From TrEMBL:
Designated name of the protein: Diaminopimelate decarboxylase
Chain sites annotated for binding pyridoxal 5'-phosphate: G285, E327, P328, G329, R330, Y427
Keywords carried by this UniProt record: Amino-acid biosynthesis, Decarboxylase, Lyase, Lysine biosynthesis, Pyridoxal phosphate
Protein family membership: Belongs to the Orn/Lys/Arg decarboxylase class-II family. LysA subfamily.
Cofactor(s) needed for function: pyridoxal 5'-phosphate
Pathway(s) this gene product operates in, as recorded in its UniProt entry: Amino-acid biosynthesis; L-lysine biosynthesis via DAP pathway; L-lysine from DL-2,6-diaminopimelate: step 1/1
Function comment: Specifically catalyzes the decarboxylation of meso-diaminopimelate (meso-DAP) to L-lysine.
Source superkingdom: Bacteria
Domain Orn/DAP/Arg decarboxylase 2 N-terminal positions: 77-333
């Protein structure tokens, strides 16, 4: 018999069977992945083990080792489809969903979202290369960043990407590159958008508020007219404007308001400077459910709100609907992945707390020590055991702050048990490090009872791959 844990699934206590990637049942289609603690295909199997995508997590750790990122393909594809389908349902103009690949940029993730018709939002030449190698069309790659180098800009132009211009230095550099390239027979004017700070704040962590006036990103409102005037006199092909108001947002009102803020600049650009904008990018920011108390809106509700706000604003301004773009990252991939660890030792500090250690920590998930982020976890090899102890999950790094989860209720554990932390698809592998010279973990994608390696586990030798030892120091080594 297979069951789900009622306390871990918000919408239903009924059994959810593993489903093929092509033939998902309506019970899974109707769930918004960002509102779930578990990946959509997660069940408790007859061994009392956690199973994802038809694969026993304990068996996955036995095969691939730990720590191990486990990506559920059904959950990721469902999130992509819900974004895409919600636009078709709620927005009367053209729309394009772009995956914010900074959340997790690797060939497999980019290939999956690309195969669902999504474009890619990138912030470096490395992310451009990854998207291109994954088969994403350059016409669907949008290049962000507040300090793009001349080399990165040239690479993006050569690749055919759209560049989201962030500041004056970048704008002038692009104008110069365009002037140089205009001498070429095959010259195509650089396709750009302008990033503006809309002045909308959201109730989120200070470090991830990116849309208010005091931000390192985008042009300030007081310089917009000068920017429009410069672009109008340049040979740049400016197709529209972009704004992003933050991340891990549970409020819908700010996204309802952003259309009204952006349309005034859209209209100003056309009426005063003759700029024919056709695209509006309202960024991303929809949150996910990391712990039971989190209550984010669904993907469809977010799209419905954004679409209504933009539609009303443009109708009031007497403008045709723009092509509407959004850039979800966390809400696409965050809840689709878990991280499996092997439990090691434990330590009880009388009358204070019990620590349980795992074979990873801040090097594979830096968010708790960086943002004080909270997570939910289970012991994958004893899913129905009673939660009999309150423990703190500590990583193995030489850092007192390397705590993954503080004061969580778990069953009695022993060395060798498998701990699984939920919601680790966004900003975990992408922010991973080799702190204490730990190799980065492997990652697998699961579906239909099969698993495939998508990122190899680094070896100890990999850690030395880029090291150089000057000749004069060889006398101190035995190499």
């Amino acid at each position: 018999m297979t069951t789900v844990l009622p306390s871990l699934r918000q919408e239903t206590n009924s059994t959810i069977q593993p489903n093929s990637l092509q033939n998902k049942t309506s019970s899974l289609d109707s769930l918004s992945p960002n509102q779930q603690l578990l990946p959509l295909t997660a069940i408790v199997n007859s061994k009392d083990h956690l199973e994802i995508g038809g694969c026993d997590v304990v068996d996955l750790v036995s095969q691939y080792g730990s720590p191990l990122y486990i990506l559920d393909e059904v959950s990721l594809r469902t999130a992509c489809q819900q974004y895409r389908d919600a636009f078709a349902k709620h927005y009367q103009g053209q729309a394009q969903v772009l995956y914010a690949s900074k959340a997790w940029s690797c060939l497999a993730v980019c290939a999956i979202v690309g195969s669902e018709g999504l474009g890619i939002d990138v912030v470096s030449a490395g992310e451009i290369l990854t998207a291109l190698r994954a088969g994403v069309s350059p016409s669907l790659i949008y290049f962000h960043g507040n300090n793009k180098s001349a080399d990165e800009l040239s690479y993006a132009l050569e690749s055919g990407c759209t560049i989201v211009v962030d500041n004056w230095h970048e704008l002038k550099t692009l104008a110069h590159l365009a002037q140089e390239q205009s001498l070429e027979v095959s010259f195509n004017a650089p396709r750009i958008m302008l990033r503006l700070t809309p002045g909308i704040e959201c109730h989120t962590h200070e470090y991830i508020q990116t849309g208010h006036i005091d931000s390192k990103f985008g042009f300030d409102p007081n310089e917009i007219e000068a920017v429009f005037a410069f672009v109008a006199e340049s040979s740049l092909n400016c197709v529209g404007i972009h704004a992003h108001i933050g991340s891990q947002i549970f409020e819908l009102q700010p996204h309802q308001d952003i259309g009204g803020v952006m349309v005034q600049w859209f209209k100003l650009a056309g009426d005063k400077y003759g700029l024919k904008f056709s695209e509006l990018n309202i960024g991303g920011g929809l949150g996910i459910r990391y712990v039971e108390s989190d209550d984010p809106p669904s993907i469809e509700d977010w799209i419905k709100t954004v679409s209504a706000g933009v539609t009303d604003a443009f109708a009031t301004a007497g403008l045709a609907l723009p092509k509407l773009l959004c850039e979800p990252g966390r809400s696409l991939v965050g809840a689709t992945c878990v991280t499996a660890y092997t439990i090691g030792g434990s330590k009880t500090v009388p009358d204070i707390r019990t620590y349980i250690t795992v074979d990873g920590g801040m090097s594979d998930n830096p968010r708790p020590i960086t943002y004080q982020s909270k997570y939910r976890a289970v012991v994958a090899n004893q899913m129905s055991s009673s939660l009999s102890q309150t423990v703190t999950i500590a990583g193995k790094h030489c850092e007192s702050g390397d705590i993954l989860i503080k004061d969580i209720q778990l069953p009695e554990t022993k060395a060798g048990d498998i701990l699984v932390v939920f919601g680790t698809g966004a900003y975990n592998y992408s922010m991973a490090s080799n702190y204490n010279r730990l190799p980065k973990p492997a990652a697998v994608v699961v579906g239909s009872g099969e698993s495939s390696l998508i990122i190899k586990r680094e070896t100890r030798e990999d850690l030395l791959r880029q090291d150089c030892l000057p000749e004069r120091l060889h006398q101190f080594t035995k190499v």
